[in-house]
Amino acid sequence: MTFEDAYFKQKVLKHDSLEPFGFITSEKGYEFRKPLMAEGLEARLFIDFEGKLTGQVVDVDFDESYDTFRSPHATGTYVGQVREAYGDLLSQVAEFCYDDQLFSSPQANRLANFIVKEFSDQADHPFEKYPDYLPFRVDGKWYALFSPLKGEKLALSGEKASLVYDVVNIKVDPRQMDKLLDLDGIYPSYHMSKKTWISLVLDETIPDQTIFELIRGSRSLVAPKHLRKASEPHYWIVPVNLKYYDIGEEFSASEDILWTQKASMQKGDFVAIYITAPTKAIRYLCQVLEANIANQGYRDEESIKELMRIKPLYSFNDSDFDSERLKCFGIKTVRGPQHMTDDLVQALSPYLKGK
């Protein structure tokens, strides 16, 4: 790993940010130069069209690369200052021109993006000692566990034994087990029940669509009853920050409103509106009247692509379903659209009778 690689691990390039930062387009990619400190040094960065960054610190007087700072054993005030100044520049580029990714492999990131888009589930970090182990859950139960894993843990041999892969463990119907294990890239699960779980190596061996279908099946096997059938309404909880959007004022002005859709809501779904800090409570229970409406200028932000029409069914006091009570129903945080737990659906069911 190079000095530069450490700053761009699990990053993806935002091409449209390069010019505003100061990069200049060339035949092979993008170039950037900047004086470094006041010692006749210049940082020269190059990013190819795939997003790979390489760089040099150059002694301008001699037009020679200064590489002493790259050695972790090199010490001294001057070396330390160069290392720090160049590292600061790389940090700025990483923050301004790249987005974070959860995983090292492109296929693992595509799979994670599919899960978020398809189900609005978010990965979490349950193991402090193993921050790279990321499960996706539904109603608190795992259905996909991502982790970096050496090939030898999956009984791979030769060169593959020492390589580290992004792997996902998923649950399957035991009746499918033998058939699935015959496929390249699928192995008996590592560190989970081999009767009902398998491990998939995310190195492009298995087609995306095959993995997507297996993920849907895994989630269906562990999902609570109210989430298993697409034909039935789903139950969501969605955060709203009143500092940026006064949803109460809109409800006062109209029986139903057009509202930003950030998950796979469908007509007939139920949505609990959670007011963020300092309130931290569910204030409205709504139903989706129409979904997937194209945003044709209704919302100014270009990032808002779709809207949904929602109607309030019930308004709560902020003490009825505050954050402390929600914890009792398995809702620890509300950072984005997510499915309700079975316990919360049950608690809200009296307000849904006849709806």
Automatic annotation (TrEMBL):
Coiled coil: none annotated. Pfam families: YjbR. This is MmcQ family protein.
